[in-house]
Amino acid sequence: MLLDGGLGSMLIAAGLPAGRAPEWWNLEHPERVASVHRAYVDAGSEIVHANSFGGNPVRLAATGLAGRCGEVNAAAAAIARAACAGRALVAGDVGPTGAMLPPVGSATVAELRAAYREQAAALADAGADLVSIETMSDLREALAALEAALATGLAVIASMTFAVRRRGCFTVMGDPLVPSLAALAAAGAVAVGCNCTVGPEEMAAMAREAAPALAAPLVAQPNAGLPRLTAEGASYAAEPEGFAASMASVVAAGARAVGGCCGTTPEFIGAMRAMLVARGA
Amino acid sequence: MTDRAELLAALHRAVLEGDEAVAHRLAAEALAGGVEPLEAIEHGLVPGVREAGRLWEEGEFFLPELVLAAQAMRAAMDVLQPALGGARAASPGRVVIGTVEGDIHDIGKTLVATMLAASGFTVSDEGAGVPAARFVARARELDADLVCASALLTTTMPRQRELVAALREAGLRARVMVGGAPVTRSWAEAIGADGFADNALAAVAVARGLVGRGATV
Lengths: 281, 217
Known about the structure:
Chain A is α/β, with parallel strands linked by helices. Chain A has eleven helices and eleven strands. Chain A is globular and about 45 Å long. By secondary structure, chain B is α/β, with parallel strands linked by helices. Chain B is globular and about 55 Å long. The mean pLDDT of chain B is 88.
């Protein structure tokens, strides 16, 4: 399956001020959010992430949207549904709270689960077709989000973010690739995978390790390489065709769903679509 | 624990293993046993935290292990720092640290703050999402030697440039060190920062160099 690409970077390109949480635009500029969703659907995305990555109450409180979880997530799902117009599925996007569990921070699993329940319920009530948990660094937090999302009755994809270290692939908290994804699958995720931190080459290495070891389908959404900050803003190293060519390796390694994260655009999705079609997928 | 070398090795181990209670106890035992506090720090704690930093670089230690090691070092420093003789005389410098406006990421920043405090710096941790004006006000209030600003998003990195300019405009003497995952040395140089570090251990060494007084790590 073909997912979508980065949303935050697209919104910034459309004028979202640096440092402003993307969720604000669900309220202030829904048409610009819808425009990005439509571009991805036109490029071939079969699943589109609603603009709700930072939509849990903990993050919203830090971005000036305290107490508006229901409103922000309902708007996110509604905008995505209207933009997709039945041509693609809408995934309620659930990202990390930013609150850390011990020993790194003092949050509790119960607090995190409660925050995710509030967000997941809002997304489900507004008609999301599934929930996509992304960019998790702590397996305990990912499991809390998963539990909260499953309570809505929707299917849930769960992705974590890993880096390639000498001994293998780990999150910054030290959660290892395969055991973490296996735990998420065992806890009920319909598909599991990796997103962010790495580009397609390293993602292929992760796919080669994880796909054969898991029964659940693997989802892979790498970045368009590493970002460089220039006077004009952040730029990413990879180009769409090169990215798509590298993603062929990710698919060959066993990933069943692919998309892109930071720095990817509808062009990247279009190039991936062409690659998948050429592969007979 | 009668042997000095054994005690120092045990302190090293307590920091490496992130054992706060043991590190605290051993620091007290060291003082009671006549070990000079500076010796306990430099030959007990510092090797432990340096090894933790090395294991982090090698991908063997992750954030939890680093945080625990820093906490163990801090617990030991709570005992040893006062024994160094006068908090102000011993403190290598006053630091204001925070993550820039619009950015909520703070693990790395908090780790650096803990390491700086554990090394004896007087640290005012302003948290995350700190506007330049607050950095400046706090630096002025404390007559800070150093301001440390972290940014983890390419979209918030420009705030570091803004901060350097604001501090210069305010006429404050504080040096500026920047960090955060996307931050590079060339970015630090381009924006006129005085220093840059890409890990907490290096941050302490750079801080020591920038402030120019003897620190402990």
